[in-house]
Amino acid sequence: MNAIILEDTTLRDGEQSPGVAFSKERKIAIFSSLIEAGIKWIEVGIPAMGGDELDTIETLLERKNEGMLVAWNRGVKNDVIQSLKLGFDAIHIGLPTSNNHLGDNLKKDRTWLLKTASELIKLAKDSGVFVSVSAEDVGRSELSFVEEYAAHVAESGADRIRLSDTVGILTPERYGAIVGRVKRASGIAVQCHAHNDFGLATANTLAGIQAGATFFHATVNGIGERAGMPDLAQCVLALKILYNIDLGVDETKLISLSQVVAQATRVKCYPWQPIIGENVFAHESGIHADGILKNNTSFEPFLPELVGGVRRIVIGKHSGRAALKYVLQSLGVMFTDSELIECLRLTRALSIKIERGLRDEELLGVVAAVRQGSCFNK
């Protein structure tokens, strides 16, 4: 298998999440965190927006020696010229292949599409840059035409075709099949661009890579239009652990990277979000906590240290004696067996009453109540 390249699009498609807007300082901070994590291909934005966005892009381009910065462009000559003048070494040209987008939205036909693609590719390749071209809305495109289009853009000199499941309607089986057919029809490098409307973006991306794609898009925390995009951390860890594909990303930076983007979007990740959620290495259930204390691989697919995480034993309704004993000892509390049993009973009752797990100070309060012979819920 050829080397697989992760291209992050948090700063472009990710920022297109409804209600999200990154300031210049935020975009630079996210860019820096991506680079620190070892991510080398980054789609940084849309130069044609002008204004503050253009100013930010120009600042980021001062650091283009740190990675491959990609500009997103409409299928418009002036957009491409602008990106070339800015000094990008890689550009993407967005063009649709479905009748929904090509005919209904742009009021153009396939002849126009093929001609425009050729002209824009030639314009960019004459400047010696890497050229990526979309087949937007591929999920609703006629596959035989997508094959023809892919062969056409390859012959025109494009380096890559981006197969965009624009409305996220493909299954992994269908997406993988499309990638395979496009590869066979054109020989061009394929990039996965999957949206998450049915929760299948990461699965579709993995299927596309299995079918021969060598590039894929992801965003930090899975942000993006509507339901978002493949989550970067999930893709990185799934490829490394489940498929033995190392992308060269520093996995210990994934949680801190997630936090930087969560602050920028003002949206905290839910606790059970795979890989980076605060509950991923948290254990409360008696059997699980007891197992993890005996063998730290019992109920975790990988060690928390791999992604910069920390294991937690949570005390609450579902806790058992082993977990309670472990946490009390870690707090420096000495106890008898009878005290431990009574503490467990009161702990479970308090957890139900307050409808959550106990904080350390609350657990210490339970211990004090047991030793005083009182009961908090009388």
From TrEMBL:
What keywords does the record list, in alphabetical order? Acyltransferase, Transferase
Checking InterPro entries in the record gives: AIPM/Hcit_synth_CS, Aldolase_TIM, LeuA/HCS_post-cat, NifV/FrbC, PYR_CT
The record's Gene Ontology biological-process terms are:
carboxylic acid metabolic process
Reactions accelerated catalytically: acetyl-CoA + 2-oxoglutarate + H2O = (2R)-homocitrate + CoA + H(+)
- Under Enzyme Commission nomenclature, its number is 2.3.3.14
Q: Which family does the entry's similarity section mention?
A: Belongs to the alpha-IPM synthase/homocitrate synthase family.
Q: What is the protein name stated in its UniProt record? A: Homocitrate synthase
Please name the taxonomic classification of the source: Bacteria, Pseudomonadati, Pseudomonadota, Gammaproteobacteria, Pseudomonadales
